[in-house]
Amino acid sequence: AQSVTQLDSQVPVFEEAPVELRCNYSSSVSVYLFWYVQYPNQGLQLLLKYLSGSTLVKGINGFEAEFNKSQTSFHLRKPSVHISDTAEYFCAVSDGGLYGLTGGGNKLTFGTGTQLKVEL
Amino acid sequence: DGGITQSPKYLFRKEGQNVTLSCEQNLNHDAMYWYRQDPGQGLRLIYYSQIVNDFQKGDIAEGYSVSREKKESFPLTVTSAQKNPTAFYLCASSRGLAVNEQFFGPGTRLTVL
């Protein structure tokens, strides 16, 4: 079974300050990790993903995350936040592909989310 | 532009009524998903479909039903058996076989009056 823990439900930060949103996971199989952002009353948008290769992953809007297998973490960072980064952020882990049928796909398990509030 | 559409954006229902939420995608994705989002609980998987004419229950399928008659469409019916249906519902899709990110629609907010 897989699970994701986002320990911080809310993170307040001043504009232009750095931020780190924490994500820890558990999985009994290969790990595939994602960060999504959600603005109020909207769907989720992918920020970045780790499937394989380099453990430092760069995404959109200046965000990056580092996959740390020994600490089972995938923390999201941004060196300087903007007011427009105010949103909810979700970490998710995949259990790998669904190979039972031709169509495939993969199941994601989401964390409970971290509300990032950027203040002037 | 390719993407996922959900309708309606807001939906109100009286207790005891069934209601169907629409989800359409033109990304040519094989797999489609329905999630329920409640404050402080993240997203929980209701149903998913890997291919046309097939679907599987997710973690919270009770009180919901789906169909997948066309590749582009994956409607969700919230039945009167769902005891607490007020929530934000999100539809997603992904390419098949390999692990890939899921693309999300804008969501439907269902309120039971």
Structure description:
The complex is a heterodimer of chains A (120) and B (113). Chain A has strands at residues 3-5, 10-14, 19-21, 24-26, 32-38, 44-50, 56-58, 64-68, 73-78, 87-97, 106-110, 114-119. With 120 residues, chain A is mainly beta. In chain A, a hairpin with a 5-residue loop joins strand 7 and strand 8. Chain A is globular. In chain A, 40% of the residues are buried. Chain B is mainly beta. Helix content of chain B is 0%, strand content 50%. In chain B, strands 2, 4, 5, 6, 9, 10 and 11 form a seven-stranded mixed beta sheet that branches. In chain B, strands 1-3-8-7 form a four-stranded antiparallel beta sheet, with no helix packed on it. In chain B, a hairpin with an 8-residue loop joins strand 9 (87-94) and strand 10 (103-104). Chains A and B meet through strand 5, strand 6, strand 10 and strand 11 of A and strand 4, strand 5, strand 9 and strand 10 of B.
Entry keywords:
heterodimer; A: 120 residues; 4-stranded antiparallel beta sheet; 12 strands; globular; B: 113 residues; mainly beta; 7-stranded mixed beta sheet
**Secondary-structure element pattern of chain A, one letter each:** EEEEEEEEEEEE
* Rg from Cα of chain A: 15 Å
Q: What portion of residues of chain A is helical?
A: under 10%
Structural class of chain A: mainly beta
Question: Strand pairing plus helix content of chain B: what structural class?
Answer: mainly beta
- In round numbers, the mean pLDDT of chain A is 90
Largest sheet of chain B: 7 strands, mixed
For the record, give the distance between the C-alpha atoms at the N and C termini of chain A, rounded to a whole number: 41 Å
Roughly how many Å is the radius of gyration of chain B? 13 Å
Low-confidence stretches of chain B: none
Number of helical segments of chain B?
A: 0
Amount of beta strand of chain B: over 45%
Helix content of chain B: under 10%
The overall pLDDT average of chain B reads: 92
Number of helices of chain A: 0
Spatial shape of chain B: globular
In whole angstroms, how far apart are the ends of chain B?
36 Å
